[in-house]
Automatic annotation (TrEMBL):
Region Disordered, residue ranges: 111-139
Family named by the database record: Belongs to the IS150/IS1296 orfA family.
Protein name: Transposase
PANTHER family to which the protein is assigned, alphabetical: INSERTION ELEMENT IS150 PROTEIN INSJ
């Protein structure tokens, strides 16, 4: 996918928002696909110019769960959730959703990238977390996972019920 300058994104979105041209016309003029352009518009409407700025962020597992819970609670699409939470790409949200479905909560924890450091390990011992702190973190993680699974179960039951009702008609 082509890289676009922030200035071009802003100009394109503002052109569209003036109402003179359709989304397709403006997207074609700037050489961006319709879905990508729609994402720019959503980000701009929720966060202004800052939404279109390039940023590199590591998201916490809790933040990822907040995004996924928002989607479950509101029925929002990955594109809408990305716009609301100021995430540059809907595919990021889609990857989180897929990872959670396939591997559970552990999949939302970011893995360290790159080659391992060749630096010598620090010789002073790292103080371990208090047992209550680590247990409290695990309890919170399990609560979030439980809440997500309950909502997922309710959605599955609702879908099954609607399928049964549609077969009866």
């Amino acid at each position: 996918m082509a890289k676009f300058k922030v200035e071009d994104k802003i100009r394109a979105v503002r052109e569209y928002l003036t109402g003179h041209d359709s989304m397709n016309e403006v997207a074609k003029r700037y050489g961006v696909n319709k879905r990508g352009f729609h994402q720019w518009i959503e980000l701009y409407q929720h966060h202004g110019v800052e939404g279109l700025m390039k940023r590199y962020t590591n998201y916490t597992p809790e933040f990822k769960m907040d995004v996924l819970n928002f989607m479950n609670d509101t029925g929002a699409s990955p594109m809408k959730a990305a716009a609301v939470f100021n995430i540059p790409s809907r595919t990021t949200v889609m990857k989180w959703e897929k990872a959670l479905d396939q591997s559970g909560m552990d999949a939302l924890i970011s893995k360290q990238r790159g080659h391992p450091s060749m630096k010598e390990k620090s010789k002073k011992p790292v103080s371990p977390k208090k047992p209550t702190e680590s247990l409290q973190e695990e309890v919170e993680r399990l609560r979030m996972e439980n809440a997500y699974l309950k909502k997922l179960n309710a959605l599955v039951k609702e879908k099954e019920l609607s399928q049964r009702n549609s077969k009866r008609k």
